[in-house]
Amino acid sequence: MQLTQHTDYGLRLLIAMARRPDAPLALPGFAAEQGLSYHHVAKVAQALVHEGFAISVRGRNGGLCLAQPPAALRVGQVVRALEKGLRLVDCANCRMNGDCALSGAVARALEAFLAVLDEVTLEQAARPGVSAFAPWLVSSDSRPQSALPLGGDGVPCRAGQGT
Questions:
Q1: Can you list the domains of the chain with their CATH numbers?
Q2: Is the model's pTM score more than 0.85?
Q3: Could you give phi then psi for residue 63, rounded to 5 degrees?
Q4: Of 85, 83, 105, 84, which Cα lies nearest the Cα of 93?
């Protein structure tokens, strides 16, 4: 199962916000630090706000803040929200017209995948140097946190502060 780039960026944004709860996450700094297109990051940020995972803080020191505590967010919940029409195979366009047992097995595999993601909170995923998915990985890539400033100048994030 491979997630879309949209969901990948969304999870990265949420993890970055969870690691910096004291200030809004500035999107230009985040995009530069991650080597991503600012415009793509801005679209993903808009989706996170629309889905209720983040709030937008306007102004010079604005950016994105988490809309709820990281311990309350499950990675599976985020994936379901960002991966619209999530499926592993396209049975609707198959000429076998459901005349195989594979569709049921694939649906169960997808549910198992999401169940594993439901076990991981954003708080766990945001811990630096520790893979929240370590029990399921053969190897993990732990990168040090960037020294680039990603947020405003200490403006705290508060629910209901944005638009």
A1: 5-86+121-136 (1.10.10.10)
A2: no
A3: 155, -145
A4: 85
